[in-house]
Design a protein that fits this description.
Layout lengths: L19 E4 L8 H9 L4 E3 L3 E2 H4 L3 E5 L4 E7 L1 H5 L7 E7 L8 E6 L3 H11 L5 E6 L4 H4 L11 H19 L2 E7 L4 H12 L5 E5 L16 H11 L2 E5 L5 H11 L3 E4 L1 H5 L15 H14 L4 H11 L5 H8 L3 H7 L3 H15 L5 H13 L1 H5 L34
Parallel strand pairs: 1-2, 1-12, 2-7, 3-7, 7-8, 8-9, 9-10, 10-11, 11-12
Antiparallel strand pairs: 4-5, 5-6
Helix pairs in contact: 1-11, 4-6, 7-8, 11-12, 12-13, 14-15, 15-16
Amino acid sequence: MDSAPKRMPIPRNGVDFRNKVVLAPMVRSGELPMRLLALKYGADLVWGPETVDQSMIGTTRRLNPHTQTIEFTRLSSRAAKTPDTSQRESVIYRIHPARESRRLIFQLGTASPARAVEAAKLVAGDVAGIDVNAGCPKPFSTAGGMGAALLSTPDKLCAILEALVKEVGSKYKIGISVKIRILDTAERTEALVRSLCQTGIVGLTVHCRTRPMRPRERAIRDQLRMIGQVCREAGVACLMNGDVVSREQAEELAQEYGVDGAMIATAAEANPSCFRRKHEGGLVHWRDLAEECLRTALEVENKFGNTKFILGSLIPGKEALRRMVSMARSYREVCKMFGLEEEIGGLAREVDAKIGIAYDKDEKSAVKTAKLKNESARAAGGDMVRKKPFPTDGMNVLAQRGTDTTRALAMEI
């Protein structure tokens, strides 16, 4: 009689990746509004965007009473050097505990076991797992020895995972996992995966592209079956990533290659209802999704620049509305563009005031007064008050994560 397959035990507060179709970690696109939409339309789990360890270390955890979200905030580097009671703190990471925390995996960018542990401890009590990014090939990650650079230093990567398992996973009863890319030969990939599976991780995701490959290049699945087998032998759940566009396709590919589930990235960025099965309704029209995204962003007081970025991903490029939104200066303007001013225009005005968007002197004065009266509202935004007439898409969103702001598109990690 065959023995049952080996399985790494899932910690009490963790989650099993098996039989899951999940939202991939994506810089900018993976912020709270997108995660909540993905969960609503059927994603089993969601990965947050990569957050660099040093950007988390030193943050303050607080509950925003208006949005019921947990926010990790810190003063900007400029404010830290010149303390000023009127300076707002920037939100580095935001979680909605009631709607996502037990299904949220925090992805960490790190190149140091000690810093990884220090950063992960800050958020470990609010998430279902910590995932180490060892797959991002972009310079903002690899320049610091993080991301895909860790594929060239497997001993360091294993040390990071072992430290997280021992110091964070065991203490907070959550799982530790890693996301990698395939290497140039199956032999090298197999050796790497075997080493990673011995660190105590509960899950491994493989992006089926090599480090030099970009999203436009077709995913390579030749090594996937072998990776799934190695993980299965070690009892580690294995997810695949790369060119997955729907739940049905994800399940078919998982069955074909013998892995436990799949991540969806680019397709979810364009339409997060891709997680919904066809017989349950399939894809939602982009207009309905965009309006829902706008409402959700207002509910959680999402940074305006990030909301515009997400809307730009949801609205087809040929639509005039896409360009109009990109030029908008406030949530109020966006509501008008969607014809929603009567329905949510009042909320839009409130959020604009809280996050510091104003046009004339009177409005700026009122905004400043509102911010000083409510510290939690100040923390919910980011540094949005500017001398220029409106915030641009190049806002310092990624820099607050310790990453580069020059990227025009979201990056699948």
